[in-house]
Known about the structure:
mainly alpha; two-stranded antiparallel ribbon; 2 strands; 1% strand
Amino acid sequence: MKKKNNFEKKYPLFVKYFTDETIRKNMLENTDLLRKCENNFESIRVFIFELEKRFDSDTIKMILSETVLKYPDTILSSFITAYLNSDEATKSNSGVVSFYNKTMALGNEAIKYIEHNGIIANRKYKDLPKIVIDDIYNTIKTGEEKYKDCFLDDVYASLTYPEREFVVELIESNSFDLLDIVFVDFKGGLKILIAFLINAKIDKTILNHENLELLEEVNLRYLAYVLMLADGDELLNCVHKLLSQGRSQLICKLISENLIDNLSLSSIDDYIELTDQEIIDNMKKNITVALKKED
């Protein structure tokens, strides 16, 4: 009986695909590859079994070289899962690795989707972000989400991808109901409101129940309208900084003093060491100086 060589012992699944002695030597010296193949032996075995149903040896070698030899463990496991869950046409497509790689650039949610539903091995993979958002929406919605008398379900199909992403994030953060609370006086409909909020970059980081509790309804409403009308992102960035520093009460005081609009006129970093009252006094002083210069 022929005695197995070292490569046959270490890589029994690859014997007939990697025959070049130099390649074999490099694979034997690659301790990380050895570990990866040992840890994922069963899934690789099933993967190769499926490949052998559809491709010749050269094609299988190419696919193994692009996946098992190159991917780190988590991506290899993800690819094999996505491949095994693919339809027959996709499993028989020799370019399936390329389409998986393109999908990776679309983010983790797109990867999770194809792991469950199979790789999309045609140009439709570009639609994955929209497909994923729709899938998430249909999973998490209750059907009761509405703004005033308009149900979200009734307008969702007409929303753009960024608009769909926006409402999904609000639902995921349990913040969609705040639209009715904060924008009770808004004159436009749901689609118009969503467009306004996206343009002003007012998202779940502003519209959330924690901020509602900290700022109270009247202040959160006032702040949202001010941010919607603000020119540029400076004011929004300042508000984010204050919220991240736990200075919600300062925001409330600035609103009550009618100073919130002026928050972006000075560097917020200059205020870190000051008390709320010192900040308010400095802002009033700066406004007074500015008015005198104008005169």
